[in-house]
Amino acid sequence: MAALHASSPVAGADAREVRRLRALRRYAVLDTPPEAAFDRVARLAARLFHVPIALISLTDAHRHWFKACVGLDLREVGRDMSFCSYTVAGPDVLVVPDATRDPRFAHSVLVTGTSHLRFYAGAPLLSPEGEVLGTLCVMDTVPRAPLSPEECDTLRDLAAGVVAELELRLALNERRRSESLRSAFLTGSLDAAVILNRHGLAEEWNLAAEQLFGYAREEVLGRDIIRLLLPERLHGTTYAGGIARHFLGGEGPVPGRRLEVRLRRRSGQEFPCELSLTPLLLEGEELFTASLRDVTEQRAAREALITGRNLLQAVVDGVPESIFVKDPQGRYVMINAAGAARIGRPVGDILGRDDRALFPAVTAEAAHRRDTHVLTTGETASYEVTDLLPDGSYRTFLSNKSVYRDSQGQIQGLIGTVLDITERKLAEATIHQQNEVLAALVRQRTQEVEQAQLEVLERLARAAELRDDNTGEHVRRVARTAAGLARRLGLAEDEVRLIERAAPLHDVGKIGVPDAVLLKPGRLTPEEFRLVQAHTELGASLLAGDSSRLVSAACEIALTHHERWDGRGYPLGLAGEAIPLSGRIVAVADVLDALTSERPYKPAWTRAEALQEIRAQADAQFDPAVVAALEALLQEEEEEGDGEPGRPPCGSPPSC
Fold first, then answer.
1. Element containing residue 168 per DSSP (H, E)
2. Measured distance CA(180)–CA(186) in Å, rounded
3. Which whole-number Å values give the CA distances from 587 to 426, 463, 526, 607, in the listed order?
4. I want to staple 380 with a disulfide (CB 3.0 to 4.6 A). Which of 105, 147, 306, 402 is the partner?
5. For 486-510, what is each residue's pLDDT tens digit?
6. Are 145 and 168 in contact (CB under 8 A)?
7. Is the distance from CB of 202 to CB of 219 less than 8 angstroms?
8. Confidence band (pLDDT; 50, 70, 90) for 118?
9. Distance CA 239, CA 270 (A)
10. φ/ψ (deg, to 5) at 654
């Protein structure tokens, strides 16, 4: 069928129109296929009124849509061009004997067009709430006499019959939807679902019930569910009677609440089952929907949880630390035995209270500030604190507090541990005092040992030096110069002092060189020179194997102070920075003093002459950095007036 619409808009709907449209759409009939019941009414109207055209028209927001149509090839028309709009607007049957003579319809396309409509009679379709859904109308292409009162009543009755069909259609659709939902619920439910009548006989049994109990639906329908599912050992017992009263009499737990019962599978295996019962009234018949769920795993998990909780409580109560949990308001929700003992109250008196109710004000306020910081920031707090306790005593505690959160990460409170460390702190203070006394004694004894060791080393150095220097001042001058160079090179002051004390032993190995060679005024033979060279290894062997830093440093200097920067020295032939810095420093200090001192085989050189010679050997015999330090050191002493002729101090006075 075609659709016919005019271009002019329909006036805006008011509140009554909104209600009317809502009532129409509740039937969900617009744009549905033809249905025999409505087609029969339209054909009956056409026969009763002897007309070629009959319509069941439903009035939408902007159109009249025809649910049934006899004698007219249209499916819908616009509201502003239809006779039905006036019927919908009026309270009763509308009759138009000759449309060409009615100014409301004379120019309608339905009158002037190919349809040639002349006669119209329509009765409104009134919903049970009084809303006009549309019209039942009959039409003719020739003018006709007005309807008689009896004919108007007939048209009204037919219109009421259309509404009755709409109501029946709605009820059937709702019932089909309800049945579909019920079927979907029973089929898709993960729980076993059983529908029982008031005698306890099964009316419905879903797939989950088949899987849970092992009985097919066809085996169960019409059977006594209590006798079927209750273990045989419980038949006839008080337990069975209570279950029956719960199923059939509504006694016991409130309907809808869950009850745990013991049931059996087809195999005879018993298991704990959670049951909820909901009454249902269907077409006047009292039914019950039973939802059943196997809770074997849940019960095991619950028992494991209780066991774990008891174990945790036993562990928590067994530790010496106070352990507690507070809610966001600072109230205790859990505390162990040690914590309760610290407060001096039973656990039951503590739970639900905050620190202000349990501790002196100064202690409570301090704890509240720390708790607030932890709860606000989520940070963990660890601290030592000395608190005033309810009994008036002061104790020192090591406390740790952190938040705990729910599954969404929201802070739910804090967990704290408190360990009484009062005795430990007292013991630590006592030990500290004793350690201070012992440390002072150790320092004193160490200084005495070091001083004695230093004196022995000094005398050993002087004994070696006096063999070719009757004053023994050479070792002191080398020590002072070495200290000055070390300080110029940026060494720490304790390293400077170490080099200054160890340097005098650089030639201790000369003890093993024969006097005839050591004091020979002329040039040494190659064999004699090898004897002199051996004093480095001899000195190192004399000083080796001691754990003292001083002796170890002296050993290093004795062995390496004749090594050369270019690797042509002795005894190891080391080169560059492979030579220990202490050896490189003493090498320069030793040569400076040797050149500026008188020897059996040469007169003393001036400081300038000696510096010129040392500078010439930089990067060959000597470390250039040490030579540069020597130049700066001598320049500084010259500027301060400490230079020749009175023999240079070359650094600070010896500290030993």
1. helix 149-188
2. 10
3. 56, 20, 22, 16
4. 402
5. 999 999 999 999 999 999 988 888 8
6. no
7. no
8. very high
9. 15
10. -60, 140
